[in-house]
Amino acid sequence: MGESGSQPDGDIVRRVLEGEVELFGVLVERYRAEFARYATALVGDPDRASDAMQEAFIRAYRSLASCRDLKRVKAWFFRILTNQCHDQRTRRRRETSLEGHDQPARDRADAQVLQAELARAIERALDRLTPEQREAFVLRHVDGKSYEEMAALLGTGVDALKMRVYRARDALRQQLEHLHE
Amino acid sequence: MSDSSKFSHVAQQYLDGQPGPETLDPAERAGADRLLRAVESYAAGLRAPGPELDAAVMRRVRAEGLTPQSPWWSWIVAPHTIRVRPAVLALAASLALVVWWTASGARGRSGAGAAETVLVRFQLAAPDAHDVSVSGSFNGWSPPGIALRRSVVPGLWVVTLPLPVGEHQYLFRVDGTQWVVDPGAHAQVDDGFGRTNSVLVVGPRGVFGP
């Protein structure tokens, strides 16, 4: 992206608002690369995750002028994306229960059976977490973010985030124990 | 471990990769490792959207002719684009005065000591201009001013600047020679030397924020 590739997010937003629409693509590439795995894990389905991301980008673009703190553009977009992901997950659960079968977000064709079972247990367990616990667990264990990085994105204290992750682990442990009973 | 359904604090630290696993009960450690393996398997199988998503988003942005929307109230306090015609200038100035009084209200007009800055979008319709700049109290009226760039809207020149909360006087300069007031300013005032300056009042809640 040349010069734009290293520009702060806030500067890009300012230029987009001044009419350089194509520069929005820099933010799209930047945030897609950072949050695609998070969105996929949070939604539980790659196609729906793609829909959630597209919708989040379009909503962010339409309301770009209302992003008041240009030093926190990423956190602002992250919140929009997370809300879209929760919506998509809710829809998926509703439709999956109507269809009567699961459509996991994984390509298990070549996976070992045990690994696939473990992964399915994680998918089922994620459904039983609160949205806040799910966000925190995915950021910590799928994205590998530190608690400090999570705090900056979510605007929540480190101690509170640790509690969410701890509770999520306890819930997931119970699911895994059922698997081995 | 008093509750077998929960990880102990030591196990939680272990799962966070912190030191101290030597005090961890072997059975609990096995449970923690099982969880980590499961999450690893889950993460390894995720198929996340790739660069094709970027192109799809930008196609929608272009195809739908989307434009970033300003909040409705920004129309009350933001400078607007009005073509510069002497015949309507007086009317525009009168209207701007009304808007200014309404928008400034009880917020006060003194920016002294205010550390807060707000992004303010300046724009001027000047279809025949080759270059447009803006100078004012915010840059010490220093020439050649701050350059506006051509908008995607034909004939429109724009720039967005961070301004401190308070009152600012300014003028546009067209082609380096012609000083032009902003017809969409909050007010126009005499500068005491026979020239008219445009006035913009930046409130503590800014142009873009409530």
Topology diagram in text:
The complex is a heterodimer of chains A (181) and B (210).
Chain A: H1 9-17, H2 24-43, H3 46-62, H4 73-99, H5 113-127, H6 131-142, H7 147-154, H8 158-180
Helix pairs in contact in A: 2-3, 2-4, 2-6, 3-4, 5-8, 6-8
Chain B: H1 9-15, H2 26-44, H3 52-63, H4 74-77, H5 86-104, E1 117-125, E2 132-136, E3 146-147, E4 149-150, E5 156-164, E6 166-174, E7 178-180, E8 187-190, E9 196-202
Helix content of chain B: 25-40%
Instruction: Give the strand content of chain B.
Output: 15-25%
What is the residue-averaged pLDDT of chain B?
A: 73
- Within CATH, the superfamily of the largest domain in chain A carries the name RNA polymerase sigma factor, region 2, helix turn helix motif
CATH level 1 name of the largest domain in chain B? Mainly Beta
Question: How many H/I helical runs of chain A?
Answer: 8
Nearest-angstrom radius of gyration of chain B?
A: 29 Å
Structural write-up:
The complex is a heterodimer of chains A (181) and B (210). Chain A is an all-alpha fold and 181 residues long. Chain A has 8 helices and no strands. Chain A is globular. Chain A has 2 domains: 105 residues, Rna Polymerase Sigma Factor, Chain: A (Orthogonal Bundle); 74 residues, Arc Repressor Mutant, subunit A. With 210 residues, chain B is of the alpha+beta class. Chain B has 2 domains: 36 residues, no CATH class; 129 residues, Immunoglobulins (Immunoglobulin-like, Sandwich), CATH 2.60.40.10. About 22% of the residues of chain B have low confidence. Chain B contains 5 helices and 9 strands. The longest helix of chain B has 19 residues. In chain B, the strands form 2 sheets. In chain B, strands 2, 3, 6, 7, 8 and 9 form a 6-stranded antiparallel beta sheet that branches. Chain B starts with 8 loop residues before the first helix and ends in an 8-residue tail after the last strand. At the A-B interface, helix 1, helix 2, helix 3, helix 5 and helix 8 of A face helix 2, helix 3, strand 4 and strand 5 of B.
